[in-house]
Amino acid sequence: MIAGLRSTAQHWSDVLPVLAVVLLVLTWGRSLPGGVVALVSCFLAAAVLAAVHHAEVIALRVGEPFGSLVLAVAVTIIEVALIVTLMADGGEKSATLARDTVFAAVMITCNGIVGLSLLVASLKRRVAVFNAEGTGAALATVATVAGLSLVLPTFTTSAPGPQFSTPQLVFAALSALILYGLFVATQTVRHRDYFLPVTSSGEVIDSEEHAHPPSARAAWTSLGLLALALISVVGLAKAVSPTIESAVIAAGLPASVVGIVIALLVLLPETIAAVRAARRDRVQTSLNLGLGSAMASIGLTIPAVAVATARLPGPLILGLGASHLVLLALTVTVGTLTVVPGRATPLQGGVHLTLLAAYIVLALSP
């Protein structure tokens, strides 16, 4: 009976990404009635679950930290494509689209995913244990790139408004790309052990117990289906975004709320995967997903947008406002205090989730 249920789940996780892409092709660029929007939303949720399943299959095959890196980079690449596509549509809102999306991703990953993972793990084992060296390196990289890309434009004077001049934008893009490359090399080659899960006594776990890695063929199949699932997640999220935008406008909320909703949808696969890892006492894997996604979001989005602005209409506003600067400073400070001990209680998880709640409240009521 149980084996049959697992076989059915496996079958649907293989079929759903294909069906979701077919639905995406049929609905792309069209005005959707309410019933179709509901159907698209159902397939969107199913594609998220399928993406998580195939990401876990790949993680079992390649091991950590490569498994979490695959999901983070895959989601971010497709997210970048979505941002550039929306910016190409033009309009006043496209000037701040990249900034709003990247900052939303930073707040959701560094406070939402990290906080939820720490809370789940510490409630189960009283204390969540992770590697402070690897997590600290990831947080330092996120803080540096976020500061160079999102904070400095608010205070520069070469260009009017909170935006970079061309030389400054080129420097920020190259810095983000180089630091991301160094981070990946550190995570996967030179200091891979810093990013592996650890036991409650601090011993590194280099392999999953009682977990048989899938075959190479199964892993490649899951990689292809993961790509299809992520494409459908982002594409279907874009398809339902006009409905979400209309609802936001009707409710009298700021337009930036749409970006938060879309970011939450796009980051659902990583969030679910991180919580599952935390429940299995693999807190380091959860933190790899959260901070790695934040790093990938900035390190890949800023260079891509910098190149795209050469052919896209309108200015590119990257500088954060005062309230967002305060939230970013609090996130970095609290994150540092969380990482240094290498251990966390439910309190730390609650603090990070409170910062995410503050960000959402201020987005709803600036």
From TrEMBL:
One Pfam family from the record: Na_Ca_ex
Membrane topology per record: Multi-pass membrane protein
Subcellular location field: Membrane
Sodium/calcium exchanger membrane region domain: residues covered: 37-188, 222-363
Top-rank taxon: Bacteria
Keywords: Membrane, Transmembrane, Transmembrane helix
Membrane-spanning residues: 12-29, 35-54, 66-87, 102-123, 135-156, 168-186, 218-240, 246-268, 289-310, 316-340, 347-365
InterPro entries named among the record's database cross-references: Alkaline_pH_Ca-Antiporter, NaCa_Exmemb
Keyword Iron attached: no
PANTHER family: SODIUM-POTASSIUM/PROTON ANTIPORTER CHAA, SODIUM-POTASSIUM_PROTON ANTIPORTER CHAA
Protein name, UniProt field: Ionic transporter y4hA
Species, as recorded: Streptomyces sirii
